[in-house]
Amino acid sequence: MISQEEINIRKMIVHILDHSLSIPVLSQDEIPSSYEIKEFFTSHIAKTMNDDGIKTCRFNDEENMFLSHLESLKSEKKKILSHFPKTLQSNYLTL
Q1: What is the distance in angstroms between the CA of the first residue and the CA of the last residue of the chain?
Q2: How does pLDDT run along the chain (95 residues), one tens digit per residue?
């Protein structure tokens, strides 16, 4: 189980993916940080991550632009974490 206290939001951009809209609303700017906004999103993330009905997914297309972006972010994260002790690295690489 993940708690709200374990979630640290430093910056965020929120895209609205509502199936009732014909197209997604993609934001270009960061959301200004406030306690209320962080509280809302950390609560939502914790609730989602702890849901027994949570689903997993896998990308099938090797030329998937989104997957490539996620892989580059993970690679960057590994480079940054290489400066920290191994115990921290193993905790944060799983997130």
Answers
A1: 13
A2: 889 999 988 888 888 888 888 887 888 888 898 999 999 999 999 999 999 998 887 777 667 777 777 778 777 777 766 666 665 555 554 44
